[in-house]
Amino acid sequence: MIDLIKTAIPFFIALVLIEVLVHHFDPDDDQTGYEPRDTATSLTMGLGNVLINIFWKLVLIAVLAATYRLSPLRMPMDDVWPWVVLLLSEDFLFYWWHRTSHEVRLFWANHVIHHSSQHFNLSTALRQDWLPMFSLPFWIPLALIGFPPWAIILQQAISLLFQFGLHTERIGKLPRPIEYFFNTPSHHRVHHGANTGYLDRNYGGILIIWDRIFGTLREEDDKVVYGLTKNVDSFNPLRVASHEWSDMVADVRSAPNMRTKLGYVFRGPGWKPSEQTAASATEPAAGLNARSGGSVEKAVDDLPSRGSRRSPGEHAKVTAGSGLKRD
Question: CA 325, CA 268: separation in Å to the nearest integer?
């Protein structure tokens, strides 16, 4: 079977170069454009993901094949309707994988890589994680209901190809019917926003209807500040890949009991024990600029996971970016 992602790599690079030229010859002060070191980091993270997937794809195929053999169900892939069902099913499961990756710190430690850039362009789409095995449990149901492994992997590739084009500031809002049903650059800009109101919204892959159904949709209605609530401030790929893991391990080691240790791993990235939250909530605010690391203190003991894109070591802090609006 043809690996669509590997086949598409030259086209990814070509489109990135074209967008670089567009930003150079037709600059827009309201757009973040490209920064050479940031782009180099994104491309390095993408290359690492490709190399890791050479081996991981074999494991993925083996697990899906074993599950498929155990299932009594078989989808007739020579017909049209199973492909429609597969698209809807894979996108539904992608939504829940993506949402989990924001709401559970163990998953966020891996996914944070993709959100670590303060720029938003086609190269950002290539800033991928180095531990793809975290998503495996979410795709097993597809094999259980009778989809063959090759079809599952093909649909995943189609979804990734679609999402590549979402990472751009050069495309504004599309016609309303498209914006209503499909994920678009506008929806995805919101997803990458560090604005308080934009944190952890718009999880859909190809379709945005899941966000409408489950209440996680946010329209783009203010200038987006990209990145994290406290940015990594490093272009070192190893630092970008490991910073949240390091801070999570440090939090677990410092926790006084097992309940707190588990909370630091399986609660939201912004979670911390209530007694610490109560103490920090009395401290004065440190500022309001998301890019400078300034923050406003907020109690987060039972912080909703959706508002959880916190920096590792700044658990009680919530940054107020441009326009205080949404998650």
Answer: 20
